[in-house]
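Figure caption, in words: inputs first, then the predicted bound structure.
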Amino acid sequence: MTLVLNDIILTYPDGDRRLTALDQVSLTVGAGEFIAVVGPSGSGKSSLLAVAATLLTPDSGQVVIAGEEAAALNDRQRTALRRDKVGIVFQQSNLLASLTAVEQLQAVAHLRGEKPKTALARAEALLASVGLTDGKQHRRPHELSGGERQRVNIARALFADPAVLLVDEPTSALDHERGEQIVGLLAAVTREHGTATVMVTHDKAQLLAADRVLEMGDGRLWETAAAARVRQTS
Ligand code: ADP
Ligand code: MG
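Bound structure (adenosine-5'-diphosphate present):
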């Protein structure tokens, strides 16, 4: 399994008490599998992704990414694991305002010590594969639509060829049709790149493309009845 979360507990300080954001959460995702996690605002979805990305260390439980247990690594090794194995698409588009789409990806390459020329060709190919062609790859974020900016985000997250792809509410700023296209794109890139993909959303409308749908509420994660039924009958 490419991503394993085992019995995760995560708490935040809350006055003189602690708020339990993740309550014994377990999840395993294989290569090429597209998981959707749906739940209301405040249920712990972003916290789940932050732990899976090793951006937050849980109070207890294991996070294993491509066979490496995060807790066994020092900070430097964990940063390298995140950079090399984890692609993240955040809820807010965090593209750099002054860079074109191609340059957003080249900036990632630069951080990884890749040669600018090979990086350019790969960046253009990846942007084309998510539908950014005809000069759009040379536009800055404000010259792109919300859906196009999300495509740049996805391409950038894929640039390092990650084993795990984590996506936070990718359609919240988009209309229904554009949202559906982005979810379809995530399903396609999951197959094509073989990533273990977890997408969290509060929008139940766009879950058909997922291989499995899990629900989250009050820090707990469970399989939906529909998902369990499918498994029993197959
Ligand atoms: P979701 O993404 O489903 O909206 P979050 O993971 O953001 O849920 O939040 C889960 C719970 O943890 C909420 O009650 C939220 O208020 C709380 N929370 C999130 N981040 C922090 C933080 N940095 N410090 C304290 N509490 C937090
Ligand atoms: Mg959130």
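The chain has a mean pLDDT of 92.
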